[in-house]
Amino acid sequence: MFDLDKFWQFFNAEMKKSYSTVAYNAWFKNTKPISFNKKTKEMIIAVESPVAKGYWEKNLASQLIQEAYAYADMEIQPKFEVAGKEGPERLVTPKPRIKTNQEILEDRRDEFAQDLQLNSKYTFDTFVQGEGNKLAAGAALAVADNPGSFYNPLFIFGGVGLGKTHLMQAIGHQMLAEKPHAKVVYIQSETFVNDFINSIKNKTQAEFRNKYRNCDLLLVDDIQFFSKKEGIQEEFFHTFETLYNDQKQIVMTSDRLPTEIPELSERLVSRFAWGLQVEITPPDLETRIAILRKKAETDGLAIDDSTLDYIASQVDTNIRELEGALVKVQAHATIEREDINVDLAKEALADLKLVQKNRGLQISKIQEVVANYFQTSTTELKGKKRVKQIVVPRQIAMYLSRELTDSSLPKIGQEFGGKDHTTVMHACDKISRALKTDAEIKAAVYDLKAMLEH
Ligand SMILES: Nc1ncnc2c1ncn2[C@@H]1O[C@H](COP(=O)(O)OP(=O)(O)OP(=O)(O)O)[C@@H](O)[C@H]1O
Protein backbone atom coordinates (compact mmCIF):
# COMPACT_ATOMS: atom_id res chain seq x y z
CA MET A 1 0.00 0.00 0.00
CA PHE A 2 1.43 3.34 -1.03
CA ASP A 3 1.04 5.81 1.82
CA LEU A 4 1.30 9.32 0.46
CA ASP A 5 2.03 10.99 3.79
CA LYS A 6 4.75 8.54 4.68
CA PHE A 7 6.32 8.84 1.28
CA TRP A 8 6.28 12.60 1.58
CA GLN A 9 7.94 12.45 4.98
CA PHE A 10 10.65 10.24 3.57
CA PHE A 11 11.14 12.51 0.56
CA ASN A 12 11.40 15.60 2.74
CA ALA A 13 13.86 14.01 5.11
CA GLU A 14 16.06 13.21 2.12
CA MET A 15 15.74 16.71 0.74
CA LYS A 16 16.68 18.20 4.05
CA LYS A 17 19.95 16.28 3.83
CA SER A 18 20.64 17.33 0.26
CA TYR A 19 19.79 21.01 0.41
CA SER A 20 20.87 23.97 2.49
CA THR A 21 18.32 25.39 4.92
CA VAL A 22 17.75 28.37 2.64
CA ALA A 23 16.98 26.20 -0.37
CA TYR A 24 14.95 23.76 1.69
CA ASN A 25 12.80 26.58 3.05
CA ALA A 26 12.33 28.03 -0.40
CA TRP A 27 11.27 24.88 -2.23
CA PHE A 28 10.13 22.21 0.20
CA LYS A 29 8.97 23.71 3.43
CA ASN A 30 5.63 24.95 2.13
CA THR A 31 5.04 22.29 -0.48
CA LYS A 32 2.76 19.36 0.19
CA PRO A 33 1.00 16.58 -1.66
CA ILE A 34 -2.74 16.84 -2.12
CA SER A 35 -3.66 13.54 -3.69
CA PHE A 36 -2.47 10.48 -5.54
CA ASN A 37 -4.58 8.61 -8.07
CA LYS A 38 -3.47 5.01 -8.30
CA LYS A 39 -5.09 4.47 -11.69
CA THR A 40 -3.80 7.50 -13.55
CA LYS A 41 -0.64 7.72 -11.37
CA GLU A 42 -1.23 11.41 -11.07
CA MET A 43 0.17 13.00 -7.90
CA ILE A 44 -1.09 16.52 -7.24
CA ILE A 45 1.30 18.69 -5.31
CA ALA A 46 0.50 22.10 -3.89
CA VAL A 47 3.29 24.65 -4.19
CA GLU A 48 3.38 28.13 -2.80
CA SER A 49 3.92 30.41 -5.76
CA PRO A 50 4.21 30.47 -9.55
CA VAL A 51 7.98 30.71 -9.13
CA ALA A 52 8.00 27.56 -7.03
CA LYS A 53 5.76 25.81 -9.57
CA GLY A 54 8.15 26.59 -12.39
CA TYR A 55 11.09 25.44 -10.33
CA TRP A 56 9.50 22.17 -9.34
CA GLU A 57 8.44 21.39 -12.89
CA LYS A 58 11.83 22.06 -14.28
CA ASN A 59 14.17 20.88 -11.55
CA LEU A 60 12.54 18.81 -8.90
CA ALA A 61 9.85 16.76 -10.66
CA SER A 62 12.32 14.20 -11.96
CA GLN A 63 13.78 13.73 -8.49
CA LEU A 64 10.32 13.17 -7.11
CA ILE A 65 9.60 10.56 -9.77
CA GLN A 66 12.86 8.76 -9.07
CA GLU A 67 12.28 8.77 -5.36
CA ALA A 68 8.77 7.42 -5.62
CA TYR A 69 10.20 4.61 -7.68
CA ALA A 70 13.00 3.98 -5.23
CA TYR A 71 10.62 4.15 -2.26
CA ALA A 72 7.84 1.89 -3.48
CA ASP A 73 8.54 0.84 -7.08
CA MET A 74 5.84 3.30 -7.90
CA GLU A 75 5.50 5.23 -11.12
CA ILE A 76 4.03 8.64 -10.58
CA GLN A 77 3.13 11.65 -12.69
CA PRO A 78 3.51 14.76 -10.58
CA LYS A 79 1.33 17.78 -11.27
CA PHE A 80 1.92 21.07 -9.51
CA GLU A 81 -0.69 23.55 -8.46
CA VAL A 82 -0.23 26.92 -6.87
CA ALA A 83 -2.13 26.88 -3.60
CA GLY A 84 -2.67 29.04 -0.55
CA LYS A 85 -0.18 29.13 2.24
CA GLU A 86 -0.31 26.05 4.39
CA GLY A 87 1.83 23.52 6.10
CA PRO A 88 5.14 22.23 4.87
CA GLU A 89 6.67 18.90 4.21
CA ARG A 90 9.41 16.73 2.95
CA LEU A 91 11.15 14.96 0.03
CA VAL A 92 13.97 13.10 -1.88
CA THR A 93 17.31 13.05 -3.75
CA PRO A 94 20.68 14.15 -4.81
CA LYS A 95 21.84 17.40 -6.11
CA PRO A 96 24.90 19.27 -5.01
CA ARG A 97 24.19 20.80 -1.66
CA ILE A 98 24.12 24.59 -1.72
CA LYS A 99 27.10 25.78 0.23
CA THR A 100 27.03 27.70 3.47
CA ASN A 101 28.29 31.20 3.80
CA GLN A 102 31.48 29.97 5.45
CA GLU A 103 32.19 27.48 2.68
CA ILE A 104 31.57 30.11 0.05
CA LEU A 105 34.08 32.39 1.70
CA GLU A 106 36.63 29.60 1.94
CA ASP A 107 36.19 28.79 -1.73
CA ARG A 108 36.57 32.38 -2.65
CA ARG A 109 39.88 32.59 -0.87
CA ASP A 110 41.45 30.26 -3.39
CA GLU A 111 43.62 31.35 -6.26
CA PHE A 112 40.69 32.00 -8.54
CA ALA A 113 39.12 34.52 -6.23
CA GLN A 114 38.18 37.56 -8.24
CA ASP A 115 38.12 41.16 -7.27
CA LEU A 116 34.40 41.40 -7.55
CA GLN A 117 33.36 44.00 -5.11
CA LEU A 118 30.76 41.61 -3.83
CA ASN A 119 29.97 42.17 -0.19
CA SER A 120 30.86 38.94 1.60
CA LYS A 121 27.85 39.36 3.88
CA TYR A 122 25.33 39.37 1.06
CA THR A 123 24.69 35.65 0.72
CA PHE A 124 21.54 33.55 0.78
CA ASP A 125 22.48 32.35 4.25
CA THR A 126 22.22 35.80 5.73
CA PHE A 127 19.04 36.75 3.87
CA VAL A 128 15.90 36.52 6.00
CA GLN A 129 12.81 35.58 4.04
CA GLY A 130 9.44 37.11 4.75
CA GLU A 131 6.17 37.93 2.99
CA GLY A 132 7.58 40.93 1.13
CA ASN A 133 10.63 39.25 -0.34
CA LYS A 134 10.06 35.52 -0.56
CA LEU A 135 9.01 35.56 -4.20
CA ALA A 136 12.13 37.50 -5.09
CA ALA A 137 14.26 35.20 -2.93
CA GLY A 138 12.77 32.13 -4.61
CA ALA A 139 13.43 33.58 -8.03
CA ALA A 140 17.00 34.48 -7.08
CA LEU A 141 17.62 30.94 -5.83
CA ALA A 142 16.17 29.52 -9.04
CA VAL A 143 18.48 31.71 -11.08
CA ALA A 144 21.48 30.79 -8.96
CA ASP A 145 20.73 27.11 -9.54
CA ASN A 146 20.07 27.48 -13.26
CA PRO A 147 21.88 30.52 -14.56
CA GLY A 148 21.06 31.52 -18.09
CA SER A 149 18.10 29.25 -18.49
CA PHE A 150 15.41 29.75 -15.94
CA TYR A 151 14.52 33.40 -15.60
CA ASN A 152 16.66 35.43 -17.90
CA PRO A 153 16.86 38.30 -17.26
CA LEU A 154 15.81 38.48 -13.62
CA PHE A 155 14.61 41.96 -12.78
CA ILE A 156 14.26 42.73 -9.06
CA PHE A 157 12.54 45.98 -8.19
CA GLY A 158 11.34 47.74 -5.06
CA GLY A 159 11.91 50.60 -2.63
CA VAL A 160 15.13 51.81 -1.09
CA GLY A 161 17.04 49.52 1.28
CA LEU A 162 14.82 46.47 0.92
CA GLY A 163 17.48 43.92 -0.01
CA LYS A 164 17.70 44.08 -3.81
CA THR A 165 21.48 44.37 -3.85
CA HIS A 166 21.79 41.70 -1.18
CA LEU A 167 19.79 39.16 -3.19
CA MET A 168 21.52 40.01 -6.43
CA GLN A 169 24.95 39.55 -4.90
CA ALA A 170 23.85 36.29 -3.26
CA ILE A 171 23.38 34.91 -6.77
CA GLY A 172 26.96 35.92 -7.59
CA HIS A 173 28.34 34.30 -4.44
CA GLN A 174 26.53 31.08 -5.12
CA MET A 175 27.67 30.85 -8.71
CA LEU A 176 31.28 31.35 -7.59
CA ALA A 177 30.91 28.80 -4.84
CA GLU A 178 29.82 26.23 -7.38
CA LYS A 179 32.11 27.33 -10.19
CA PRO A 180 35.09 29.26 -8.90
CA HIS A 181 36.23 29.92 -12.49
CA ALA A 182 32.96 31.56 -13.49
CA LYS A 183 33.20 35.12 -14.61
CA VAL A 184 30.85 37.18 -12.48
CA VAL A 185 30.57 40.92 -13.04
CA TYR A 186 28.77 43.08 -10.48
CA ILE A 187 28.35 46.78 -11.18
CA GLN A 188 26.39 49.80 -10.19
CA SER A 189 24.74 51.11 -13.36
CA GLU A 190 26.75 54.29 -12.94
CA THR A 191 29.99 52.29 -13.21
CA PHE A 192 28.80 50.97 -16.55
CA VAL A 193 28.15 54.54 -17.64
CA ASN A 194 31.58 55.76 -16.48
CA ASP A 195 33.42 52.77 -17.92
CA PHE A 196 31.72 53.33 -21.24
CA ILE A 197 32.58 57.03 -21.35
CA ASN A 198 36.18 56.32 -20.36
CA SER A 199 36.48 53.63 -22.99
CA ILE A 200 35.52 56.15 -25.64
CA LYS A 201 37.94 58.73 -24.28
CA ASN A 202 40.79 56.23 -24.00
CA LYS A 203 39.91 54.30 -27.14
CA THR A 204 39.57 51.09 -25.13
CA GLN A 205 36.14 50.05 -26.34
CA ALA A 206 37.31 46.54 -27.18
CA GLU A 207 38.35 46.01 -23.56
CA PHE A 208 35.12 47.48 -22.32
CA ARG A 209 33.09 45.12 -24.50
CA ASN A 210 35.24 42.19 -23.53
CA LYS A 211 34.58 42.86 -19.86
CA TYR A 212 30.83 43.10 -20.15
CA ARG A 213 30.05 40.78 -23.02
CA ASN A 214 32.23 37.86 -21.97
CA CYS A 215 30.92 37.02 -18.57
CA ASP A 216 28.79 34.20 -17.18
CA LEU A 217 26.76 36.39 -14.89
CA LEU A 218 26.19 40.12 -15.21
CA LEU A 219 24.70 41.86 -12.18
CA VAL A 220 23.63 45.46 -12.77
CA ASP A 221 22.44 47.40 -9.75
CA ASP A 222 20.05 50.39 -9.85
CA ILE A 223 19.42 50.31 -13.56
CA GLN A 224 16.97 53.22 -13.29
CA PHE A 225 20.02 55.47 -13.73
CA PHE A 226 20.09 54.51 -17.42
CA SER A 227 17.08 56.79 -17.70
CA LYS A 228 17.41 59.34 -20.52
CA LYS A 229 20.92 58.16 -21.48
CA GLU A 230 20.41 57.10 -25.06
CA GLY A 231 24.00 56.18 -25.92
CA ILE A 232 24.38 54.08 -22.80
CA GLN A 233 21.12 52.32 -23.46
CA GLU A 234 22.27 51.52 -27.00
CA GLU A 235 25.50 50.02 -25.63
CA PHE A 236 23.69 48.11 -22.93
CA PHE A 237 21.25 46.77 -25.49
CA HIS A 238 24.13 45.13 -27.39
CA THR A 239 25.66 43.82 -24.16
CA PHE A 240 22.30 42.35 -23.26
CA GLU A 241 21.80 40.76 -26.70
CA THR A 242 25.22 39.14 -26.68
CA LEU A 243 24.86 37.70 -23.20
CA TYR A 244 21.30 36.61 -23.74
CA ASN A 245 22.10 34.83 -26.99
CA ASP A 246 25.01 33.08 -25.30
CA GLN A 247 22.62 32.00 -22.54
CA LYS A 248 24.51 33.94 -19.93
CA GLN A 249 22.54 35.16 -16.95
CA ILE A 250 21.63 38.80 -16.49
CA VAL A 251 20.22 40.15 -13.22
CA MET A 252 19.16 43.75 -12.74
CA THR A 253 17.73 45.78 -9.89
CA SER A 254 15.81 49.00 -9.97
CA ASP A 255 13.64 51.08 -7.68
CA ARG A 256 10.78 50.73 -10.14
CA LEU A 257 9.48 48.72 -13.09
CA PRO A 258 11.14 49.24 -16.49
CA THR A 259 7.93 50.78 -17.82
CA GLU A 260 8.22 53.46 -15.12
CA ILE A 261 11.80 54.44 -15.89
CA PRO A 262 11.62 57.72 -17.80
CA GLU A 263 12.87 57.49 -21.36
CA LEU A 264 14.07 53.94 -21.25
CA SER A 265 14.03 52.67 -24.83
CA GLU A 266 11.14 50.46 -25.86
CA ARG A 267 13.42 47.61 -26.84
CA LEU A 268 15.06 47.53 -23.43
CA VAL A 269 11.69 47.73 -21.70
CA SER A 270 10.47 44.76 -23.70
CA ARG A 271 13.67 42.73 -23.23
CA PHE A 272 13.66 43.34 -19.50
CA ALA A 273 10.28 41.63 -19.44
CA TRP A 274 11.48 38.47 -21.20
CA GLY A 275 12.46 36.77 -17.97
CA LEU A 276 10.88 37.50 -14.64
CA GLN A 277 10.17 40.78 -12.89
CA VAL A 278 9.75 40.41 -9.14
CA GLU A 279 9.02 43.05 -6.57
CA ILE A 280 10.34 43.30 -3.02
CA THR A 281 7.91 45.08 -0.75
CA PRO A 282 8.59 46.49 2.72
CA PRO A 283 8.93 43.86 5.44
CA ASP A 284 6.16 43.26 7.96
CA LEU A 285 6.89 43.55 11.67
CA GLU A 286 7.61 39.85 12.07
CA THR A 287 10.22 39.89 9.30
CA ARG A 288 11.80 43.05 10.68
CA ILE A 289 12.17 41.36 14.06
CA ALA A 290 13.67 38.27 12.41
CA ILE A 291 16.18 40.43 10.51
CA LEU A 292 17.20 42.24 13.70
CA ARG A 293 17.50 38.98 15.59
CA LYS A 294 19.76 37.52 12.92
CA LYS A 295 21.91 40.61 12.89
CA ALA A 296 22.15 40.68 16.69
CA GLU A 297 23.18 37.02 16.66
CA THR A 298 25.82 37.63 14.02
CA ASP A 299 27.21 40.55 16.00
CA GLY A 300 27.10 38.57 19.25
CA LEU A 301 24.71 41.07 20.77
CA ALA A 302 22.59 40.15 23.80
CA ILE A 303 19.19 41.71 23.23
CA ASP A 304 15.82 40.57 24.46
CA ASP A 305 12.66 40.07 22.43
CA SER A 306 10.79 43.10 23.70
CA THR A 307 13.68 45.39 22.75
CA LEU A 308 13.92 43.81 19.30
CA ASP A 309 10.20 44.30 18.99
CA TYR A 310 10.50 47.95 20.00
CA ILE A 311 13.29 48.72 17.51
CA ALA A 312 11.44 46.90 14.71
CA SER A 313 8.33 48.94 15.40
CA GLN A 314 10.24 52.21 15.00
CA VAL A 315 11.48 51.70 11.44
CA ASP A 316 8.94 50.34 9.05
CA THR A 317 10.13 50.75 5.51
CA ASN A 318 13.86 50.53 5.02
CA ILE A 319 16.02 47.63 6.21
CA ARG A 320 19.19 49.68 5.96
CA GLU A 321 17.63 52.14 8.42
CA LEU A 322 16.50 49.26 10.57
CA GLU A 323 20.07 47.99 10.77
CA GLY A 324 21.20 51.56 11.47
CA ALA A 325 18.77 51.75 14.38
CA LEU A 326 20.25 48.60 15.90
CA VAL A 327 23.77 49.99 15.55
CA LYS A 328 22.61 53.18 17.23
CA VAL A 329 21.18 51.29 20.18
CA GLN A 330 24.36 49.26 20.43
CA ALA A 331 26.52 52.40 20.38
CA HIS A 332 24.34 54.06 22.99
CA ALA A 333 24.71 51.06 25.28
CA THR A 334 28.49 51.11 24.88
CA ILE A 335 28.76 54.82 25.61
CA GLU A 336 26.39 54.74 28.54
CA ARG A 337 27.86 51.44 29.74
CA GLU A 338 24.40 50.05 30.19
CA ASP A 339 22.65 46.86 29.14
CA ILE A 340 20.39 46.99 26.15
CA ASN A 341 16.73 47.17 27.10
CA VAL A 342 13.58 48.91 25.88
CA ASP A 343 14.25 52.12 27.85
CA LEU A 344 17.74 52.43 26.49
CA ALA A 345 16.47 51.77 22.94
CA LYS A 346 13.86 54.50 23.40
CA GLU A 347 16.53 56.95 24.42
CA ALA A 348 18.87 55.96 21.62
CA LEU A 349 16.18 56.25 18.99
CA ALA A 350 14.55 59.44 20.26
CA ASP A 351 15.57 61.38 17.15
CA LEU A 352 13.99 58.75 14.92
CA LYS A 353 10.72 59.73 16.49
CA LEU A 354 11.35 63.22 15.23
CA VAL A 355 11.61 61.95 11.68
CA GLN A 356 8.37 60.05 12.13
CA LYS A 357 6.71 63.21 13.39
CA ASN A 358 7.68 64.88 10.16
CA ARG A 359 5.20 62.65 8.41
CA GLY A 360 2.69 65.36 9.36
CA LEU A 361 4.78 67.97 7.55
CA GLN A 362 3.06 69.90 4.75
CA ILE A 363 4.62 70.34 1.32
CA SER A 364 3.77 74.05 1.52
CA LYS A 365 5.93 74.31 4.64
CA ILE A 366 8.85 72.66 2.84
CA GLN A 367 8.44 75.04 -0.09
CA GLU A 368 8.45 78.01 2.25
CA VAL A 369 11.59 76.93 4.13
CA VAL A 370 13.45 76.03 0.92
CA ALA A 371 12.44 79.31 -0.77
CA ASN A 372 13.71 81.30 2.23
CA TYR A 373 16.92 79.35 2.38
CA PHE A 374 17.72 80.01 -1.28
CA GLN A 375 16.32 83.54 -1.20
CA THR A 376 13.69 82.90 -3.79
CA SER A 377 9.91 82.63 -3.60
CA THR A 378 7.44 79.76 -3.43
CA THR A 379 5.90 81.08 -6.66
CA GLU A 380 9.23 80.55 -8.42
CA LEU A 381 9.49 77.05 -6.95
CA LYS A 382 6.08 76.22 -8.35
CA GLY A 383 6.76 77.96 -11.65
CA LYS A 384 8.40 76.85 -14.85
CA LYS A 385 11.62 78.88 -14.95
CA ARG A 386 14.52 76.67 -15.90
CA VAL A 387 17.46 78.73 -14.66
CA LYS A 388 19.86 76.99 -12.31
CA GLN A 389 19.14 79.30 -9.34
CA ILE A 390 15.54 78.10 -9.40
CA VAL A 391 15.86 74.58 -10.75
CA VAL A 392 18.16 73.30 -7.97
CA PRO A 393 16.04 74.68 -5.09
CA ARG A 394 12.92 73.33 -6.82
CA GLN A 395 14.46 69.87 -7.13
CA ILE A 396 15.62 69.96 -3.53
CA ALA A 397 12.14 70.96 -2.38
CA MET A 398 10.65 68.09 -4.37
CA TYR A 399 13.21 65.69 -2.94
CA LEU A 400 12.47 66.80 0.62
CA SER A 401 8.74 66.52 0.00
CA ARG A 402 9.29 62.94 -1.03
CA GLU A 403 11.61 62.18 1.88
CA LEU A 404 9.77 63.91 4.69
CA THR A 405 6.12 63.48 3.80
CA ASP A 406 3.98 60.55 2.77
CA SER A 407 2.89 62.27 -0.45
CA SER A 408 2.87 60.34 -3.70
CA LEU A 409 4.81 61.56 -6.74
CA PRO A 410 1.66 62.85 -8.54
CA LYS A 411 0.57 64.69 -5.40
CA ILE A 412 3.96 66.39 -5.12
CA GLY A 413 3.83 67.26 -8.82
CA GLN A 414 0.45 68.83 -8.29
CA GLU A 415 1.72 70.95 -5.39
CA PHE A 416 4.52 72.23 -7.57
CA GLY A 417 2.29 73.96 -10.08
CA GLY A 418 0.80 70.85 -11.65
CA LYS A 419 3.98 69.16 -12.81
CA ASP A 420 4.09 65.63 -14.11
CA HIS A 421 5.09 62.85 -11.66
CA THR A 422 8.07 61.93 -13.88
CA THR A 423 9.47 65.44 -13.29
CA VAL A 424 9.32 64.80 -9.54
CA MET A 425 10.90 61.38 -9.98
CA HIS A 426 13.70 62.91 -12.02
CA ALA A 427 14.26 65.60 -9.37
CA CYS A 428 14.45 62.99 -6.60
CA ASP A 429 16.95 60.88 -8.57
CA LYS A 430 19.04 63.89 -9.38
CA ILE A 431 19.30 65.08 -5.79
CA SER A 432 19.90 61.53 -4.47
CA ARG A 433 22.87 61.26 -6.78
CA ALA A 434 24.09 64.80 -6.12
CA LEU A 435 24.20 63.98 -2.40
CA LYS A 436 27.04 61.60 -3.14
CA THR A 437 29.03 63.94 -5.36
CA ASP A 438 28.09 67.57 -4.70
CA ALA A 439 29.18 68.96 -1.35
CA GLU A 440 27.13 72.16 -1.70
CA ILE A 441 23.88 70.34 -2.35
CA LYS A 442 24.65 67.90 0.43
CA ALA A 443 25.18 70.75 2.90
CA ALA A 444 21.97 72.50 1.79
CA VAL A 445 19.89 69.34 2.15
CA TYR A 446 21.44 68.69 5.54
CA ASP A 447 20.66 72.23 6.77
CA LEU A 448 17.15 72.17 5.41
CA LYS A 449 16.36 68.81 6.99
CA ALA A 450 17.59 70.12 10.33
CA MET A 451 15.36 73.20 9.98
CA LEU A 452 12.34 71.17 8.99
CA GLU A 453 12.82 68.70 11.79
CA HIS A 454 12.75 71.36 14.48
N1 LIG B 1 15.79 40.03 3.99
C1 LIG B 1 16.92 40.50 4.50
N2 LIG B 1 17.61 39.79 5.39
C2 LIG B 1 18.74 40.28 5.94
N3 LIG B 1 19.27 41.47 5.64
C3 LIG B 1 18.62 42.22 4.73
C4 LIG B 1 17.42 41.78 4.11
N4 LIG B 1 17.00 42.72 3.26
C5 LIG B 1 17.89 43.72 3.33
N5 LIG B 1 18.86 43.42 4.20
C6 LIG B 1 20.01 44.28 4.56
O1 LIG B 1 19.59 45.63 4.46
C7 LIG B 1 20.61 46.44 3.90
C8 LIG B 1 20.09 47.13 2.66
O2 LIG B 1 19.88 46.15 1.64
P1 LIG B 1 20.27 46.40 0.11
O3 LIG B 1 21.47 47.29 -0.01
O4 LIG B 1 20.34 45.07 -0.55
O5 LIG B 1 18.99 47.20 -0.36
P2 LIG B 1 18.59 47.74 -1.81
O6 LIG B 1 17.18 47.35 -1.99
O7 LIG B 1 19.56 47.28 -2.81
O8 LIG B 1 18.71 49.31 -1.59
P3 LIG B 1 18.96 50.50 -2.66
O9 LIG B 1 17.65 50.75 -3.28
O10 LIG B 1 19.41 51.62 -1.79
O11 LIG B 1 20.00 50.04 -3.64
C9 LIG B 1 21.77 45.51 3.64
O12 LIG B 1 22.68 45.58 4.70
C10 LIG B 1 21.15 44.13 3.59
O13 LIG B 1 22.03 43.12 3.97
From TrEMBL:
PROSITE patterns: DNAA. SMART domains: AAA (SM00382), Bac_DnaA_C (SM00760). Residues 1-90 are annotated as: Domain I, interacts with DnaA modulators. CDD domains: AAA, Bac_DnaA_C. Residues 117-333 are annotated as: Domain III, AAA+ region. Coiled coil: none annotated. Domain I is involved in oligomerization and binding regulators, domain II is flexibile and of varying length in different bacteria, domain III forms the AAA+ region, while domain IV binds dsDNA. Oligomerizes as a right-handed, spiral filament on DNA at oriC. This is Chromosomal replication initiator protein DnaA. It comes from Lactobacillus paragasseri. The gene is dnaA.
